[in-house]
Design brief:
This protein is mainly alpha-helical. It is built from 3 helices and no strands.
Amino acid sequence: MTDQEVEKLSLAYQSLVRWIHDNAIDGESTMSMLFKAAMTIAVANNVPKDEVMSVASTVYEMERFYHPSNEDIH
């Protein structure tokens, strides 16, 4: 990835995290909305279910291992 692509991804991620923290929706509903959006993207891009589940599992285990606090998420 180029530096410009990394910067775009970083800004997009920061915006998403800011929305998650600032919206008036509880955590469970926010998670449901994000899962719905992620699955819509996966289906639209013909990503196999086992690949989607593998990515979700890997991210979950990584987050669980690091136990980030709200201040650590960036």
